[in-house]
Amino acid sequence: MASVGKIARRTFLIGAAAVAGGVAVGYYYYRKPFPNPLEAELGKGEATFNPYVKVGADNTITIVAPRAEMGQGISTTLAAMVAEELDVGLDRVKVEHGPASHAYYNAAILEEGGPFAFFDESMTAQAVRSGLGVVGKYLALQGTGGSASTRDGFDKMRQAGAAARQLLIAAAAQKLGVAAADLETADGSILHKASGKSLTYGAVAVAAAAMAPPAEVRLKNRADWKLLGKPQKRIDMLAKVTGAPIFGIDVRLPNMLYGTVKMSPRFWSKPVKADLSRAEKMPGVIKIVPLETNYGHGFGIIAENTWAAFKAAEAIDAQWSDPEYPLSSAAISDVLKQALSAKGSVMRDNGDVDTAFADAPRERIVEADYAVPYLAHATMEPMNATAQLRDGALDIWCGNQAPTLVRQLCANAVGIEQDKITVRTTFMGGGFGRRVEMDYALCAALMAKETGGRPVKVTWTREEDMRHDAYRPAAIGKFQARLGDDGMPVAVDMKMASPSVIAGTLRRLFPSISPLGPDKTIVDGAYDQPYTIPNYRVSGIAAPVSIPVGSWRSVGSSVNGFFHEGFMDEIAVAGKVDPVEMRKKLMATYPSAVKVVEKVAAMAKWGEALPAGKAKGMAFTLSFGSWVGEIVQVADTPAGIRIEKVWIAADVGTALDPGIIEAQLISAAIYGLSAAMGQEITFADGMVEQSNFHDFDAMRIFQCPVFEVAILENFHKMGGVGEVGTPPAAPALANAIFALTGKRIRTLPLSKTVAFA
Amino acid sequence: MRLTVDGQSFDIDADPDMPLLWALRDLIGKTGPKFGCGIAACGACTVHVDGQPVRSCSLPVGEVSGAVTTIEGIGTAGKLHPVQQAWLEEQVAQCGYCQAGQIMSAVALLDEIADPSDADIDNAMGGNLCRCGTYPKIRSAIKKAAALKTAGL
Question: Contact A237/B36, CB-based, under 8 Å?
C-alpha cells in the first residue's frame, strides 16, 4: 500500500498550482496528477519531493529540467526557477533532463493554439487558452516547442522548489526541536541562528519527503530573486567547450554496431527495384534491412563503423516509385497559385473589406504578390539515434523534442508496450523544430530488431538529412491595401496559401487523426499582429502538396513576418509615411508594441541621415507572446550587399535570464537572415535538389553583422524567447535593401535578385 | 596502422580511405571532433595535424603522418586552454555542436597570429559554420583568448 506521504507527494503540484492560481482545488479528472517518475529511480538515502527535485544523503541536489536543450539555454533557466526557490546556487546543483514521463507535460505549448491573437484577452480567448492547457494535460505531451518552456515552467517549477524547501525546513525544525520560523536556508543548508546549529538538506531529505506537503506554497517576491532576472552561467558551458560526449551522436555502448539509412529520395515512394548485392559485399557491412515507417520507405545499413555504412548506402542501387506530389518546384508553385484562387478560411475580418475596395481609385491601391521557398532545418548535428532491443525491452538514446512521443511511436513500430521502452534524451546539436520529428528514432528502433541484441548507433549523412526533412513549407501571398487621404491604410486584404504544417505533422505522428478545421499556422504572423486598420482581412488556404512540412523556427510567423512586414513597408512608401511613424500610429492601441518600435528606432537613430551607399529597414512582429522590432542596416560594397548592423528591441513581459534572452534573439535573427539571404529547398524529378552546406549554406562569421539588443518588460504576460527574433529578420533586411537599391524583392531568397558580400 | 592522437599512440585496423574523423570517433573513441557535413564545408570536425587545422571528415586516415590533436587534447575541465577559458567566460556556446571545431580553428589562429584583427578572424573562422549564430561571441572570445594568452594565463 502506498504511504500517505507518497500519495500526498504525488498530488502536491497540481494542488499547489490550483492554490497559486487562485482557483479552488477541484476533483476534475484533468487535475489528477501523474505519478512522480523519480520515485522509481531513487538511490539509497535519496529523496524526491516532486518530479523536479531530488536530494541525496550526501546533499547532492538534483533538479530535473524536462525540456530539450538544443542550445536555447532552457536547462539553465528551468533549473534556476527551482534553485531560486530552493535557495541554492546553480553551481550547487546537478541538472538532468530526466526520464520520458507524462508528469512533464507542457501545457503552455498548446495554449496559444486557439484562433486568438496573443493580445486578445476577451473572456472567450482566455477560456479557450485555459481549455487548451487542459488538452495539453490530457495529451500529456512532454514537448519542447512553441517557445513555451519558460511560460509552462515558471509557476510549477518555482512551486516545486519552494515546496521542497518548506518541507526541508519543517523536517529540520522537528529534528532540532525549534520553530520553523526561526530557521533560515543558505547554500543547501538550514541554519538556526540563535543556537548556531545547522543541518544540510541531505541530512533531513528523507524525513522531509515523508511529511505531508504544505497546504500553501509561498513564492519569493521578484525583488528577492537572486538568480532569476539576472544572467546566469549556463550549466552546459563547460561540457560544450571541452568536447564532452553529450550529444546523441556521441553515445558509445559496449559491443555497439553502427549504421545509417538510405530512404527514398522521393517522399512516401517505395522501392520498385533494389539491388543490394554490391552494398552487402562491402567490407564492414553486416546487414541491410528494409525500413518502413510513417515517414517513408528505404533501407537501414548495419555495419562495423559509420564510414562502412555510409559507403554501402551509396552503393545501394534502387529505383523508387513515382511520387504522389508534383515533380518540380515550378509544378508545386502552380498548385500553390491554384490554391490561392480559392476563398480560404478567414482568420481576421475587421470592417467591410469588399466595400472598402469597391470604390477605391486606382492610385490609392497598393498590390503585391509574395513568395517564400521550402526550407530545411539543417541542424549542425545530423539526425541520429542509438537503440538496443534486448529481452523485449528497447533502450533508445537520442536528442528529441518530445520523449513521450518517441516512446509511443517506437512502441508501435517495434510492436512492444510503451512501458518496455526507456528514452534517454541527450543534448541536441540544434533543433529548430527538426527534432520534433521521430524518423531517426524510428529507424534506429527498427534496426535494433536486426542486431541480435547489440546496440546500434544510426547516423544520417548530411545529404540524407538535407533531403529528408520536414521542411518549412513554401508559401505564396496576395496582398492589397487601400490608402486614405493621409497616406495611411484604411483597408488591407491579405491571402496566403501553403501546404499545411498541421496536416503534415499529423500524418507522420498521429496517422489515425484527421486534421479538423483550418490550419492557423498558414496565417500566423499575419492575422494576429497588433495593427488597427478599419478594414482588415486575412485568409489562408491549405495547398494540397504532400512533401513533408513541419515546424521550422517560428513556424507560420517565419513566412508571414516577411509577407506582412514587407507589405507594410510598401504601404508606408506608397503613402509617403515614415515606416516607424506609420507603425506607431497603427499600433497605438497596444502601448507595448509602440514602446518596442520607439526603442528600436531610438537605438538605431532612425531618421538620421546615413552616408551614401548605406540604408536601413525595419520590421515588427508579435509571435509566441513577445513583441519584437528589428532594424537592419545594409551597405553597398564592391563585393555585394553587406549587412552591417542589426538592432533588436523585444518585450518579453518578464525576462528570466537577460543573457540567454539576448543570445536567443541574436541567434534567431541570424537564423532568419541566413534563410532570407540564400536558402531554398527546390525539387526536380520529385527529389530535393540541395544536398549539403555547399548548396544550402548559412551566414558565416565574415557576413555576421554587429548586434545591439534591448530587452523590455512592459507587457503583463510573459512571452517566449527561442523563436521570436526570426520573423522580423527577413522583412527588415528586404526593406533595407529596398531603401538602399530601390528594388522591392518579394520572393525569397534575396540572393536570386541581389548579391551579398 | 599507427596513429598518434592527443599524445597517445593507437594501433588501428582501418581502410586507409576512411576519413580521419571516423577513425577518431568510431575506432579510437574520440567523440570530441564532430561530424557535420563530410565534405569539409562546415568545420565541425576540425582537428590539428602537427599543429595545422584540418577538416578530419575529408582527410583519409591513410594520409595522416603527423600527430593529431583533438579538442580533448588541448585542455581538460580542470585545466582549460586559454581559448576554452575565453569561450567559458564569454558564454559562447548555444547548442555547442560546432564549438569543438570553432575552438580548434581559433587555437590554430592564435598560434599563428597572437593578436588577430577582425579580418584575420574572418579569414581563419570562415570555414566554421554555426547554425545557432554564436559568431559575435566567437569573435569576442577570440580577442579575450588572445589577451589571456599574451598575459600567460
Answer: no
- Which residues of chain B have a CB within 8 Å of the CB of A645? none
- Mutating which of B97, B123, B138 best tests the A interface, going by the most A Cβ atoms within 10 A? B97
Helix (H) or strand (E) holding B21: helix B20-22
Domain identity same for A480 and A569 = yes
How far does B31 lie from chain A, in Å, by closest CA? 6
Note whether B70 and B5 are within 8 A (CB): yes
- Judgement on whether residues A47 and A165 belong to the same structural domain of the protein: yes
Q: Of B46, B74, B102, which residue sits at a domain end?
A: B74
In a domain, residue A18? The reply is yes
User: pLDDT at position A9, please?
Assistant: 33
Chain A residue closest in CA terms to B141:
A241
Residue B106's domain spans which residues?
A: 82-150
Element (H, E) at A350: strand A345-350
Partners of A665 on chain B (C-beta within 8 Å) are none
Q: Beta strand A296-303 with A257-263: parallel, antiparallel or unpaired? A: antiparallel
- Cα nearest neighbour of A244 on chain B: B32
Q: Which domain holds residue A480?
A: 329-375+471-752
- Cβ contact (<8 Å) for A667 and B75? no
Neighbouring residues of B67: CB distance < 8 A, sequence distance ≥ 6: B4, B5, B7, B49, B50
pLDDT band at A17 (very low <50, low <70, confident <90, very high): very low
Fill in the DSSP letter of residue B25. Answer: I
A88 in Cβ contact with A447 (< 8 Å):
no
Q: Which of B40, B74, B108 is the last residue of a domain?
A: B74
Cis peptide leading into A254, omega within 30 of 0?
no
Q: What is the pLDDT of residues A327-375, one digit of tens each?
A: 999 999 999 999 999 999 999 999 999 999 999 999 999 999 999 999 9
For residue A140, the model assigns a pLDDT of 61
Based on the domain organization, do A524 and A424 belong to the same domain?
no
**DSSP output for A618-630:** EEEEEETTEEEEE
Select from A241, A271, A299 the last residue of a domain: A241
